[in-house]
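We give this protein:

***
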Amino acid sequence: MSGERYVLLGLARPRSAWFRQVAQWATSAALPAEFVKCVSADEVHARLASDRPFSAALLDGGLPAVDRDLLAGVRDAGCVPIVVDDSREADWIALGAVAVLPLDLAREQLLDVLATHGVMVGGGEVVREDVRAPLSAAWQASVVAVTGTGGSGTSTAAMALAQGLADEGSGGPVLLADLCRRAEQAMLHDAREVFPGLQEAVEAHRGARVDPAEVLRATFHVPERGYHLLLGLRRPRYWSSLRPRAFEAAFTSLRAAFGVLVCDVDDDLEGEDDGGSLDVEERNLLTRTPVRSADVVVAVGSAGLKGLYSLAGLLGDLVAFGVEADRIVPVLNLAPRQARQRAALAAALAQLTASRDGAQRLPSPVFLPRRRVEESLRDGVTLPAPLPTLLAGAYRATLRRTTSSPLEAPAPEFARVAPGSLGTWSDDTEESQRP
């Protein structure tokens, strides 16, 4: 088609030689391209969000804004990200770039890359190709998200579950990740050092591909309870420093490094579709990502009037978010000992959840009795029985129920047999086989 050319976005450091050179090639028609210069990563996102098609984005690898999230944003917009960088520290291809060009790039090099990965634009045609690269890992650990209403003992239940799974010793090492905005696991574990933690793990994945074995360095081993601990945010407002794609990459690395990932998360699942705010969805990223990936979701509430009502609302939010009812484990903390009272609590919870629109049948709740948890936390010893055993047993039972199906005998299948295909039998053969 006549008039076709490449439409390129460019983002680089001030007075970059390659940036100026590409602009000269485009102006002099030495390069069949239109070069659109950007002064910030926000401008790159804004131009990609418009209806105008772009063939590729040339990004300076020396800019701090050029990271995993920017490359993913370019890919999601149907554009091809190309990094210009001489540094060998960052594996740009693993981070999402389709090619890496040197700072002293030649016109032929750029043309070869554009011919291989780019698409020419002409005649007002809008070209949007799906060039997204999903994150993957060779091994993905089982994820259990522990959430609950305020003051119900969610963080303690997450600790007990991690201890119970570590005591079983099956499925590999167990990690307890504090993903709450108001992280309290550091206080509950009496952590004298709050560095490194979640922020450092996510930051390491912004501009580099981190080996899962290196993720262990961002965690602390808790020998008294047998699991590893990833400390959370040091301030609630620091959630804004976590880039979504970098957090997803860090979460994938955690799943690749451990056998079971126990996530202590908040109960707020609101996203952009619910309230129309992207900022709210990014604020709740630490909750939405684990819950979406979880094999089992443990919802904790207190055994009381207010606790039952709040837990029923949380269960409804989880089902509305897309969590299957069979994967949810309702837990009533500080439950009474009498069987009659427990039955009344279970019936009340079932009635509350059944009264909601679109409600699904939920499993019966797990009752956690009163135990001296405060003393165990203060002394830094194992949490008292039977809390770890009850939670670990409920997790295993839910995992078996949702990942396996009863064996059924296959239906008989009949096939035609060609004459002579089964061989022959004679009296001589029978005589020769007798002892």
Q: What stands out?
A: The CA atoms of residues 200 and 366 lie 36 Å apart. The radius of gyration is 29 Å.
